[in-house]
Amino acid sequence: MTNHWVDIKNADLVLVMGGNAAEAHPCGFKWVIEAKKDRKAKLVVVDPRFTRSAAVSDYYAPIRSGSDIAFLGGVINYLLTNDKIHHDYVKAYTNASFLIDEGYKFEDGFFSGYNPEKRSYAKDTWKYQTDKDGYAKVDPTLQDPRCAFQLMKQHYSRYTPELVSKVTGTPKDAFLKVCEHIAETAAPNKTMTICYALGWTQHSVGSQNIRTMAMIQLLLGNMGMAGGGINALRGHANVQGITDMCLYSEVLPGYLAAPTDADKNWAEFVDKRTPKTLRPNQMNYGQNFSKWATSLMKAWYGAAATDKNDYAYDWLPKKDAAYDVLAIFERMHQGKMNGFLCQGFNPLASVSNKKKVGDAMAKLKYLVVIDPLATDTSEFWKPHGEFNEADPAKIQTEVFRLPANLFAEESGSFTNSGRVIQWHWKAADGPGESKGDIEIMAGLFLKLKEMYAKDGGKLPEPILNLTWPHRIAAKPSPEELLMEISGKALGEVLDPKDKTKVLAKPGEQLAGFAQLRDDGSTACGNWIYGGCWSQAGNLTARRDNSDPSGLGQTLNWGYAWPANRRILYNRASCDVSGKPWDPKRAVIKWSGTAWGGNDVPDMRPDAAPDENVMPFIMTAEGVARLFAPALAEGPFPEHYEPFETPLDRNPFHPNNPKAVSNPAARVYKGDMEVFGKAKDFPYVATTYRLVEHFHFWTKHARINAVLQPEQFVEIGEELAKEKGIANGDKVKVRSNRGFIKAVAVVTKRIKALDVDGKKVHTVGIPLHWGFKGVAKPGYITNTLTPFVGDANSQTPEFKAFLVNIEKA
Amino acid sequence: MIRNPKDLKRYTAQERANHWVVGISFILLAISGLAFFHPAFWPMTQLFGGGVWARILHPFLGVLMALSFLSIFFRFRSLNVMTPTDREWLSRAKEMVDGNDHDMPEQGKYNGGQKMMFWALALCMLLLMVSGVLLWRAYFGFPVELVRFGAVIHAATAAVMIALIMVHIYAAIWVKGTVRAMWYGTVTRAWAKQHHRAWYRQVTGK
Amino acid sequence: MALQSLDIARRSATTTPPPAVRETTEVAKLIDVSTCIGCKACQAACMEWNDIRDEVGTNSGVYDNPADLTAKSWTVMRYAEVEEKGRLEWLIRKDGCMHCADPGCLKACPAPGAIIQYANGIVDFHQENCIGCGYCITGCPFNIPRISKEDSKAYKCSLCSDRVAVGQAPACAKVCPTGAIQFGSKEQMKDYADKRIGDLKSRGYDKAGLYDPQGVGGTHVMYVLHHADRPELYKGLPNDPGISPLVSLWKGFAKPLANVALAAVALGSLFHYVTKGPNEVSKELEDELEKEDAQ
Q1: Does C13 sit within 8 Å of B39, measured CB to CB?
Q2: Contact yes or no, B with A (3+ CB pairs under 8 Å)
Q3: Do the Cβ atoms of C258 and B137 come within 8 Å?
Q4: What CA dihedral angle connects A469, A473, A479 and A483, to 10 degrees?
Q5: Residue B175, beta-bridge partner list
Q6: Which residue of C has its CA nearest to B196?
Q7: Cis status of the peptide bond prior to B105, with omega within 30 of 0
Q8: CA A168 from centre of chain
């Protein structure tokens, strides 16, 4: 979230799309209700199903799963044609005025630079025109046909309400009604918050779904505002923390891009990742990369990392290929992996195409499952009737189960969707022989280290030199780890403005990432968490909920990264001169000498407005990007069909069969072949969670099992009638990868949609069941889902695929 | 009481036993039923080992009473067919109640009042049994509207039946020489001749 | 076990006044259906606080689970899909004991002290006094109490009388994530409901209103409904509930009447005997028969 949970109450309009906050985030959803109750806010829900969120909404519009960019592109077109944008904001705080390279173009579904063989783009035309100083050229009048604003306008002019309705299945009047609601928040003192979740990310165009909404929020001037922002509602209580700490091997902690084979040495690695400032006077905060990276290496290798050895750069693994979840299982499936350490993860149930995942694990020599529960994954080899037809005689994988503690059985920190890091205290001892994850990992590490020390090996240094300054080596405490993550001084940290002033003495905890240095004098395990455990102690353990502004900022509750800032880009909540757009919801303002107010300013505190330092300090331009070259499939989001589409064409590009689905998405050999076709699998399926359950955990919990005991699928009344399915019947749902059987819930809440001249039905498939637990045993829903992901994050397309359904 | 070999046999041992099964189960049913009906009678549940036992036993006793009454019903049904004499007797029942029974029409084994009692009790039994089943939640689940109706019928019928039985008992006490018919099965000839002269003539041939 | 910190207003099958000297504020739970997302946190909290665990059931084609109230499920969410003015609405209502001011269960209960109405309005079942007859079910206008198959005792929502007695809100109100379940004095709850009804009316629900049915003297669990004119839309919430006239007859008027009638019969018999004397066999007849025997 750019904003935070409580801030939702400051919104005038809450849009829930690409998510179902009431279902998946009932506790956070309270703030939506607060906004409705206390601000008279409106709640608009756009979803293929009339959800629990829709049940309390003011307006609901249906949409075909997988057509969000068409819908949102249509909103952009509506805002531009009806002139419902926040002009001053767009002009000053976005790259609308930036001139784009003459070579950039978009034609027949492809952007310039497409290579169909590699299924990827050369991005050399996706850039700004620059002047002799290397700065981007701008046209403040926004009239230049090559400025981002004009190109954007041209790009989305195709997204007419008629075509949007034809692609999304949303009735035109419903679409326009949603547009009207959204357009109202273009007023400087009105904001819309958007609550989305996996309903946007789990598509082959997931990242672009979100980007389209980011563009809308920029056009409306809602970024940085209280009650605005782009708000990803994260799933696990700590999934934000997991991503921050580098869940994916693409990045190092704090979203530092990981080194690749192409980066020969430290200097090259750092240089390539340090952005060049693209406009005068901008903070371009990313230019501090070397300080963050150096401090990270010092946290890991301590005294062993010096400027003499490139801060131990050679010991870092270099990325040679993709290591996302689909890539891992693809490699495992090819038999190229021996062992798999599976910690807090149930891939047999969670990853698409269960059969492929099961087959892949059967090719391992060993599988280690570290989990509090006896997961389905840990018994992938074991026959569980029709729900898991495995043949143990043919599987040689040795499976180890290491029972771990649950979160309540150990202390530690959670980072919520709003980036607030909150310490939690151990409530009970774990049962039996269970151990904390830290202790288990420490045990594995110490054993490995001992073996390397004894037996040597190919490259023992990364293990042998790892710094391990823990009081009990076999059981590092969570407190020690958070202190390491937060950062401390190794040498004296001096004030750059006054070298006689010592900011931190050796051994002291640092006050924040601004004190990080690239000379080896500081160590910090994750720069964005810098300062969460300062000399003042564990700031994440603070529980002072006083809220003087009434905005719910509660700056003394826990610690929000970065720098305890609650609303990102909050400089943009003020006009260029530093006055809040909405004085009633002032986040910060310019006092005449400094920035301050109800949040930690997202701006150099003494940057006077006339210095023209723009609010988006993490971009090299200082402004937000309407035209964004970073993403894989184009600088402007474009609608592509899901890989399994009920249509035989992309109605936006009816004559280009290669532009039906995301042209930049990676598809493995063998997976393309098992994509189903609409003639065999005519119905759009989408998977989702239910409020009664949490992933595949709570099927092990009696209360949750009582509340939602048995696997079901949801279908509309019309489809049920066509198929002769009565409410409560057992049905079989098939995709080209397998089938599941479940109880049919026949509902008015799913309606057939008219899409591109066809009637399209949706089959809704909740995913919480499996063969382990106390709930009624069920099929793994991901038996059905396709093994393809978003072109940027490789998040699998769980939300839109094709199935057929029949009475079982 | 003097036992005389010339006393007349009014009830066989089986008939008497049958009567007392009905009688005992009725008494138990009445006191447990009254306990459920009105708090004033609640302490009587102690006779059964408490309220729960009273609740458990009451319906089973009801079944016992219904079945044993059914036996009585078939034994005495034919003897209780109303005749014109009974109607005449009934029309002059006030004289009887006042104690002037010497002018009453000659009665067979049962007088009009007793026959009325027989049929009234039979009707009560039927209503209690049917409505009782409606209320027996341990084994049945009827729609609540029906149960409510059943509750009213059950309570009202039970009250009527208790009143009838009180009259029944009182009549036996009031008419001296009657009770022994249900103890030993015999009545004196004088008793028979006075209260049931037609029956007397029938059994003695006089 | 009566809770000493709560005074008793009424006690089942009891004809004398219970102790009631303390001044107690009438409490109420307000369920704002318009902000309820049907998350069932209330059901989970109810199970946890009261230590009850129902069976793991089946799916019968709806979200409602457990499918109905049971002795081990004292509250359930009921989901109704209705189409109003061409617009789909998913009406979700938390069902459970309404804690009537004039409770039909208490009226019908034959067991002294098995059902208690506290002065604060909570109607509570005290299972140690319950005999398992099910009269409470017969008496209830909302079809709430359930008899356990295991112990033949009647169970229902206690409004967490144990929590309320020590100044806590019921477990369901405590956990409700959206604040759809509010708890406080009945007056406060009515004021709060007024605000919510105003908000709903401003959003086009002209018939929004409070469900506090006067047929049972008002309730201590109230609903804010978008369609207060048609409570039956919410999976059969009764439109104008009251204690059935049959139950009133049975446990009201009939009780004294029958007692008086039975007493009259008993006394009538006694006085008949005393005034008219026994009906003895006449001396003449006995003599006559003796004479016959002598012959």
Answers
A1: yes
A2: no
A3: no
A4: 20
A5: C279
A6: C281
A7: no
A8: 24
| Residues 154-173, chain C, touching A (beta carbon < 8 A) | none
Contact at CB, B190 and C258, closer than 8 angstroms: no
C133 to chain B: nearest residue by CA? B55
Nearest C-alpha neighbor of C103 from the set C116, C113, C119, C120 = C116
Phi, psi of A801 (to 5 degrees): -155, 180
CB contact under 8 A, B97 and C276: yes
Mean pLDDT of chain C: 94
Instruction: Find the mean pLDDT for residues C31-53.
Output: 97
Residue whose token pair is 């005792």: C153
Chain C residues within an 8 Å CB radius of A22: 37, 39, 178
**The pLDDT of residue B3 is above 80:** no
Shortest Cα–Cα distance, C214 to chain B (Å): 21
Task: Count contacts between A and C (CB, < 8 Å).
Answer: 124
> So what's the pLDDT on residue C17?
86
Check pLDDT > 80 for residue C19: no
- Interatomic CA distance for residues C48 and A98, integer angstroms: 59
The one-character DSSP state at A339 is E
Determine, for residues C56 and A708 on separate chains, whether the beta-carbon distance falls below 8 Å. Answer: no
Average pLDDT of span C262-287: 92
Calculate how close chain C gets to B72, using CA atoms only, in Å: 25
Contact criterion met (CB below 8 Å) for C227 and C84:
yes
User: What ipTM was predicted for this assembly?
Assistant: 0.94
Rounded Cα distance, A511 and A488, in Å: 9
Pairing mode of beta strands A801-807, C8-11: unpaired
Residues of the binding site of C for [4Fe-4S] cluster? 36, 39, 42, 46, 97, 100, 105, 109, 130, 133, 136, 140, 157, 160, 172, 176
Q: Residue A670: what pLDDT?
A: 86
pLDDT at C5: 62
Report the candidate in A681, A678, A672 with the shortest Cα–Cα distance to residue A647.
A678
Q: What is the pLDDT of residues A410-464, one digit of tens each?
A: 999 999 999 999 999 999 999 999 999 999 999 999 999 999 999 999 999 999 9
- Partners of C46 on chain A (C-beta within 8 Å) are none
> Among partner residues C265, C279, C281, which is closest to B188 by beta-carbon distance?
C281
Q: Which domains are seen in chain A, by residue range?
A: 6-235 (3.40.228.10), 657-807 (2.40.40.20)
The minimum CA-CA distance between B16 and chain C, rounded to whole Å, is: 23
Nearest CA to A74 among A207, A232, A182?
A: A182
Q: Is the peptide bond before C66 cis (omega within 30 degrees of 0)?
A: yes
**Would residue B154 show up in a list of annotated catalytic residues for this protein?**
no
Which of B56, B98, B148, B173 should one mutate to test binding to chain C, selecting the residue with the greatest count of C CBs within 10 A? B148
Q: Which amino acid is at B13?
A: A
Q: Hey, of A6, A32, A33, which one would you mutate to test binding to chain C, going by the most C CBs within 10 A of its CB?
A: A33
Domains of chain B as residue ranges with CATH: 12-77+106-204 (1.20.950.20)
Provide the 10 A C-beta neighbour count for residue A313. 21
**What is this structure's pTM?**
0.94
Q: Per-residue pLDDT for A111 more than 60?
A: yes
- Cα distances from A710 to residues A94, A728, A733, C29, in angstroms, run 49, 11, 15, 31
DSSP states of C250-262: IIIIHHHHHHHHH
Query: Cα distance from C65 to chain A (closest Cα, Å)?
Result: 5
Domains contained in chain C, CATH given: 8-25+35-179+229-240 (3.30.70.20), 248-294 (no CATH)
Nearest to C183 by CA among C27, C11, C17: C27
Range A585-590, long-range pairs (CB < 8 A, 24+ positions): A585/A10, A585/A189, A585/A191, A585/A225, A585/A226, A585/A227, A585/A551, A586/A549, A587/A224, A587/A225, A587/A226, A587/A551, A587/A553
